[in-house]
Amino acid sequence: MTAENAFFPEAADRYASANAGTLRWMLDRPLLGAGFLNTKVNSLTLADYGAADGLRGPDYTYGWIQGRGLEALVTHAAFFETRDAALSQRLDDAGRSLFARIKELQARDGHVYFRYDAGLRPVRADGDGTVTAQEPAGDVFTYSDAFAAKGLVAAATRYAPEERPGYLRYLADVIAAIEDGRFQMSEEKPLGGEALAGEPDDFGPRMILLGGAGMLERCGLSDHTAYAQRFIDHVIKNHLDEKTGLLRNVPGGDECNVGHGIEFAGFALDHAPVRRNAALVATLERILIASFRASFAECGLHLTVSVSSGEKLSPYRPWWSLPETIRTAALCHQLTGSADSLAIWQEADSAFFDHYWRGAPAIAYQTRTADGPTDYVPATPDLDPGYHTGLSLLAAIRVAEALSTSHTAYASR
């Protein structure tokens, strides 16, 4: 067996073990507040956050994280069903419970919010740290809605199919808000009005919702994915820099969030019709290669780079861009067989497990710089609930197992 062929089964087994470890760690922890997932741990010290940690502490529940966690629980429950029935059952028990909690939040006014206080009231934090009530969202939708909607559709598919149409409408409302200018990225400002009017034309919202396409297909809902090609076409037309292959955060701007570019390519490749479009696959692979090569240094990917100069604009190298690279590179390599995508897959794999993965417990450092792990929160202080890392590695497992099977079959001829 060649080294290349040996990598696929080894990686698949290692990824499955890592995901199982994270999920067991999360399931073993006491629930947060009214029954929410609790990943409130400092990734450097491994100490639980307490009340003295303010916005990081247990008095605050992040709808953003809970929505991600719901999708992760449900998706992994299905994956482990035939591999570890006991773990799958635990994931389903937790999934049903979290489904009920998020349903209650969303039923209040048709939204899920970024942050809730101890009384589960939506709140935001001003620049000086003052916590105030968040404005009702009304007809404005946010990233928290996006993550919650995806999680609710996945959970309803598995636990309550009769409730699924309502959550598909919720997801459709988020998609519509992106396309007609009612999506607000910044949830630390009052929702609507001045903040909404000042939002940049970032491709982030389309990228995140594009991640719903593959999920919908696996739920048997391919007829609800027409929006995905519109989103892909929009991002490539308006954000792709043809010279470098990088995606500009906003049209005409100079900053590129390389992790978002790689994540966009991965979500697009996870959408079944894209895989039959060789020209589009080539474009997406180019985005992967350009983004990784422009930003990777030593142990991870710098958060942002300059499209014009190639300068690395941020010292921070968050954990999440590496598993997202693993996903995207795996999907690329499966379709193209290119040496470049395989090399990036293996480089990202080594960087993540050598420099970020703690192993015991099965969590990653949130962020590193050239000087090592650092206390920088990429988005929310709660650690990843099996979403960025878990779902990315899960996609790579599917690819690695398929490639292992195909190589084995070929070798036996």
Automatic annotation (TrEMBL):
Domain of life from the UniProt record = Bacteria
Query: What is the protein's name according to its record?
Result: Mannose or cellobiose epimerase, N-acyl-D-glucosamine 2-epimerase family
GO biological process terms held by the UniProt record = carbohydrate metabolic process
The source organism is Nitratireductor aquibiodomus
